[in-house]
Amino acid sequence: MQPLRKSILALFVLIPVLAGCQKGGDSTQPTTAVTGPGGEKAETRTAAEAPLVKSDQDPQHPIYEFETSQGKFTVRLDAEKAPLTVYNFRNYVTRGHYDLTIFHQVLKGSLQIVLGGGYTADLKEKAALTPIRNEAHNGLKNRRGSITMARRANDEDSATCQFFINIADNDALNFKSRSPNGYGYCAFGEVTEGMEVIDRIATAPVHDTDKFVGLPVETIVIKSIRQVK
User: Fold this and answer.
1) In 3D, which of 104, 97, 98 has the Cα closest to residue 123?
2) Is 163 in contact with 150 (CB distance < 8 Å)?
3) What is the pLDDT along the chain (229 residues), one digit of tens a residue?
4) Among 45, 77, 200, 228, which has the minimal tally of Cβ within 10 Å of its Cβ?
5) Domains in the chain, CATH or no CATH each
6) Is 173:142 a contact under the CB 8 Å cutoff?
7) Based on the number of CB atoms within 10 Å of its own CB, is 104 exposed (0-12), middle (13-18) or buried (19 or more)?
C-alpha cells in the first residue's frame, strides 16, 4: 500500500485512505477459480486453502459475531442484494484471515468510519485474494451501522479484504454513477447488536504516521469473526 496522505481536505483526497489491501502471497502456488452463488467469478484461491463453510440457517442473511479488544458486536449480512460481496467476506472469515487483525483507521471528520481487516497488530499487511466486482449499485446505503467494503479510489472493482463500519450516515460514499469516482462503496450488511462497541472504537485517540491516517494510539484488535446464525 502506498503511503497515505496526512492532509484530508476533500472526499477525493480521503477516498484513497479507504483502499482495500493488496493482493499478496506466493504467486507460484496453483490456484483454483471460485464462483459466486450465480456462477460469477468471485475470487481466486489457492488449492491448499480450506473449503468454504455453508450456512444451513438463512444463507441469504447470515449473522456474524465480531470479537474485538473493545467488546463484541454482531453483523447481519445481505447476500440477497450483495451476493458476491457477502461470498467474498465469508471466504476470508472461513480462512481465519481476520483473526488478530486490527482496526487500523478511525476517521472522525466529514466521513466517519472505523476501518479494519487488512493489517496485523505489528502493521504488517496480510495477503489478499483476487478483487471482486463492485456491487454498490445494490441500493444499500452507507448509513450509520452499515458494513462496507473498502476499495481503491481509481478502481471501482478493487475490493478485497478490508471493510469499514459507518459510524454516521456517509452519503458521499453511496453509488451515484457507473464510474470510478461515482460508483461508491458497497454496503453489504448492518450491525444488529453492539453498536456501542463501534462507538467506543470511534472515540479512540488516534495519530497519523507516514503510512496511516487516523491510526488508533492503542491497538484495537479483531480477535475473531465467526458465523453464529
Assistant:
1) 104
2) yes
3) 333 333 222 233 343 345 544 443 333 333 223 334 444 444 433 333 333 444 456 889 999 999 999 999 999 999 999 999 999 999 999 999 999 999 999 999 999 999 999 999 999 999 999 999 999 999 999 999 999 999 998 899 999 999 999 999 999 999 999 887 899 999 999 999 999 999 999 999 999 999 999 999 999 999 999 999 9
4) 228
5) 57-227 (2.40.100.10)
6) yes
7) buried
What letter represents residue 192's amino acid? Answer: T
Which residue do the cell numbers 448492518 mark? 190
